[in-house]
Write a structure and sequence with these properties.
With 627 residues, the protein is mainly β. The chain has two helices and 32 strands.
């Protein structure tokens, strides 16, 4: 059976179901100032153990997972360690088991204990005491040399730093990344810009910042990039792909505004403003991400100290989250939260350290064992979470709440694109392929690189591909593929232009010449200009010869029956034009010599067909002016 959930599913959980969802299991209640809960497999037996510290007792310890969610007694790793602030487990010496790193703010010590196997640890080995009040550590390979490095954050010297791992658990000296932020209380690492190396992120309490430092490669880091300055009393950070777009987003908690928020990675260094999940987490101390309900999306967990609360924010997909779902309000001074499968049932349970209760507890994830949407189907078997699995009006075995195509058979999909035939936008093509993101599948896209939905002139051609904006592209009287509204030559083929002057042959005023070259501005192309330098349109006697080149003013220059070169109407015994315009012969009777064409008119035809050519030119001129 295949189907898609088209809308975000809200996991409805009645208030009475909270205790059923996450029943509390106490691991230990005798750790004074319990902190730093961590869920990892310490002894390598395939089951997730729990490690932590007691700040007031000054102890570091772990609890062996005996299977089925039962834990053994506390096993001390170190005692008399004053001012513990963090415990972190990672394989620092590359022997495949997890070693334990800790930091303290009273003697400014960062050190590690080697895991000797079977849950036994060696003595503390100092890494540095150069950090003033270290608060947090993180292990990652920052310089891509195959060995893990150590990141540290210290409060009183405002320092984010790293130590190069040289292998075998050895670390080089402190290398400062930044001292520009006030009171560093958290650090982590993640590839924010997608270039394959890890950026270093920091949390600074006093200036309310969540920041990161770009990894430039080879152990070098760029200047600070600020993600937000609105985490008031910033306390922790977590990173994960929360909206399913393939890049790493950021979750933060802040104590003075009681806030849990996340920010979408828009392409580092750009992040969205804070998207607030709650401002009711009193003194929000810690955040964690994991898929608690097995829907493939990363949810968010939070721990808040002053209200003793552990909460879950269900990821609804696409960057949407449910309101706060309470897991517990009895974790006194909850200060750390993580998740892992503690009972081997395949889902992630929740681990918390609670300082005022001196306890480490875990909450059994029973989401799969209840019927959250009250449809008679347990969550583990629920086909359509949040909706009634029993409602199926079209009988296609897909509940209506998750039915992609209500009223049609979701299984009928002739083009195999995962969209039922009854709701297929583009039959015989994949509806999921939409390169220009206009909501029209590529197989039916009218405008492959534009938005098919915008058509301002209503000609069924999208604006982005409109050949003739504001006119109907489909109206083409002469069939030349140029819409009539943009057709230069309405009754001829605009594509034919032998002289390449941009004027179609059928409307070309001056074939063989450039119609747009007109030196005297008389709208007659130079190549066909009868009277260059003068206006060909001035022709008082309508004989087709412009006035300033007219040989026989007032008469037709082209009537010359004896072909003596003198227009007939200017031949005789009188000097009809007084010769003053010629300056060649003295006044007297007109003769062929006397009436020689004036020098200013150098292009008048003496052919009987000249008047016919002029008529054609003037007709073309009139037509062009109309166009």
């Amino acid at each position: 059976m295949t189907f898609r959930t088209l809308l975000p599913v809200v996991l409805f959980i009645p208030m009475t179901a909270f205790a059923q969802l996450f029943p509390e299991q106490v691991i230990d209640a005798a750790s004074d100032g319990a902190c730093c809960a961590s869920a990892v497999d310490i002894d390598g037996d395939g089951q997730t153990d729990v490690a932590g510290a007691a700040r007031i007792d000054g102890e570091i310890f772990w609890f062996r997972n005996l299977g089925g969610g039962s834990f053994g007694a506390k096993q001390i790793v170190a005692s008399s360690v004053p001012g513990l602030t963090d415990v972190y487990l990672a394989d620092t010496d590359a022997d495949t088991d997890l070693d334990l790193i800790f930091c303290t703010d009273q003697d400014d010590r960062i050190a590690w204990h080697e895991n000797l196997g079977g849950g036994n640890f060696g003595p503390a080995q100092l890494i540095t005491n150069a950090a003033d009040s270290p608060q947090d550590v993180w292990v990652a390979d920052l310089d891509a040399d195959g060995t893990v490095d150590l990141i540290t954050g210290s409060r009183l010297d405002n320092r984010v730093a790293w130590h190069h791992g040289t292998g075998g658990g050895d670390f080089g000296p402190q290398q400062t990344i930044s001292t520009s932020n006030l009171e560093i209380v958290g650090v982590t690492a993640a590839d924010l810009d997608g270039d394959g190396d890890l950026e270093v992120l920091s949390v600074s309490l006093q200036d309310d910042r969540i920041s990161y430092f770009p990894n430039l490669g080879g152990g070098s880091f760029g200047p600070e990039e600020i993600i937000t300055t609105w985490a008031i009393g910033a306390s922790s950070i977590a990173t994960d792909d929360l909206d399913g777009d393939g890049d790493i987003d950021v979750v933060s908690t802040s104590t003075l505004d009681d806030k849990v928020a996340w920010q979408e990675n828009l392409g580092a260094p750009n992040f969205s403003p804070q998207q607030i999940l709650t401002t009711n987490a009193d003194f929000a101390a810690a955040a964690w991400t994991d898929d608690l309900d097995g829907d493939g999306r990363q949810d968010i967990l939070s721990a808040s100290t002053n209200d003793d609360t552990v909460a879950w924010f269900h990821n609804l997909g696409g960057g949407s989250f449910s309101a706060e779902i309470i897991i517990s309000t009895s974790a006194g001074w909850a200060n750390a939260v993580e998740s892992a499968d503690l009972d081997g049932d395949g889902d992630s349970d929740v681990v918390v350290s609670a300082a005022s209760d001196d306890k480490f507890v875990w909450y059994d994830n029973n989401i799969a064992d209840i019927d959250a949407d009250v449809d008679g189907v347990l969550n583990a078997a629920d086909v359509c979470p949040g909706f009634d699995d029993n409602l199926d009006v079209d009988g296609d075995d897909v509940p209506d709440g998750c039915d992609q195509c209500v009223g049609f058979d979701d299984e009928a999909d002739d083009d195999g694109d995962g969209v039922a035939n009854g709701c297929d936008v583009c039959a015989n093509a994949d509806d999921a392929l939409d390169a220009d993101l206009d909501g029209v599948p590529d197989g039916c896209d009218l405008c492959a690189n534009g938005d098919d939905n915008n058509d301002s002139d209503s000609d069924s051609v999208p604006d982005d591909c409109d050949q003739c904006p504001d006119y109907d592209d489909l109206s083409d009287y002469d069939g030349d593929t140029v819409p009539d509204g943009c057709d230069q030559c309405l009754n001829d083929d605009d594509r034919l232009d032998a002289d390449l002057d941009g004027v179609p042959d059928g409307c070309d005023q001056c074939p063989g010449f450039d119609d747009y070259t007109d030196s005297d501005g008389d709208y007659v192309a130079d190549g066909c200009d009868l009277c260059p330098g003068f206006n060909d349109r001035d022709d008082a006697d309508f004989d087709g010869v412009p006035d300033l080149c007219d040989e026989c003013e007032g008469f037709d220059d082209y009537l010359d029956l004896n072909q003596d070169g003198v227009p007939d109407d200017c031949e005789g015994t009188t000097d009809t034009d007084t010769d003053t315009d010629f300056g060649i012969q003295p006044a007297g009777p007109d003769t062929a010599t006397d009436e020689t064409k004036p020098a200013v008119c150098t292009c008048q035809s003496t052919s009987p067909q000249g008047s016919w050519m002029a008529l054609l030119l003037l007709t073309a001129l009139a037509r062009r002016r109309l166009l």
